[in-house]
Design a protein that fits this description.
- This protein is α/β, with parallel strands linked by helices.
- The chain is built from eleven helices and 15 strands.
- The strands form three sheets. Strands 3-2-1-4-5-6-7 form a seven-stranded mixed β-sheet, sandwiched between helices.
- Strand 5 and strand 6 form a beta hairpin.
- It starts with a strand and ends with a helix.
Amino acid sequence: MSDPIIILTEEPLGADDRVNIERLVDGADSRLLVLVPANTERHLLVDFLENLSMLDVAKAFRELVDRNPDAVAERAHADEILAASLAALEGLGSGVTGQVVDGKAVDGLVAKVRETGASQAVVITRPHAVADTFHTDWANKAQDQLGVPVLHLYAGSGFIGDLLSVGNAMSIFGNSIFGNKAAGIRGGTQHDSAQEDAAQEVTVQKSDAQWREELTPEEYQVLRQAGTERPYTGEYWDTHTEGVYQCRACGAELFTSNEKFDSHCGWPSFWSPLAEGNVRYIHDRTLGMDRIEVRCASCDSHLGHVFEGEGYGTPTDQRYCINSVSLRLVAKDEARNDAQEAKPQG
């Protein structure tokens, strides 16, 4: 029998969560154990700030005024969440069981992973802007104490907080991480090795030492080591300025503001690159997941990932989820001024 998978959730799991967990199980006979905290122990001020950050002012003040914790009511609510979650995951793996956890949620998760010898832990929460940004969310706290991967999902969506593995934080980009056929090429077919080998030859080649010297530590970590910036923190995630987005490593033109759209995922999103030859794709099947990585075709720097079939209603039904730190925006007015300055004087 495969190792058990421990799932800690603060929300009742539903159909979308089942799809994500089913992809993670991938036909194995893993036993699933769902944990629901009796008390989420969220900080009153932190929750207030998080609601404000999501522009939900009414909810922020309502919870600030109305909050009056009742242990019996919270326990009953946790029981309801557990029952709904077990029903949602019924039939997956070799069986699904669960329990309500008293005390601190992360302590309960860590104890159960150690007790069962689980090799995979999953944390499912709603977005918590403050905790997710400053790495104080449950997944990060659990990883500080565990030596197994901790997958952080946002309830009901598949959006990712982090995938944390031993000694290395590996961030996954955006939605559909378990393979919504997000191929990054027209018609939805996936790239194979031959297609990758046929990708445009890299024209900007530098040594690792040169890249380290030219890029800031954050730029190097994302562009050259395939890292990711935290959601809602990048320079361009909510930018609507007209212009062209260049590769921050080599200056190649990659995307334009014409194809940029508001996906509300926390990273700049485009429904198409400036031209297909300007980017290249790598089929990424790491850790049992199926994603398409997007790289700059000129210098082979990491940009992000591309997904499709998410229902955004864009012309291509695709979302290029790109790190702000991988890009440099040349505004339309700036480009016009540069062109005028470069014009010969007569």
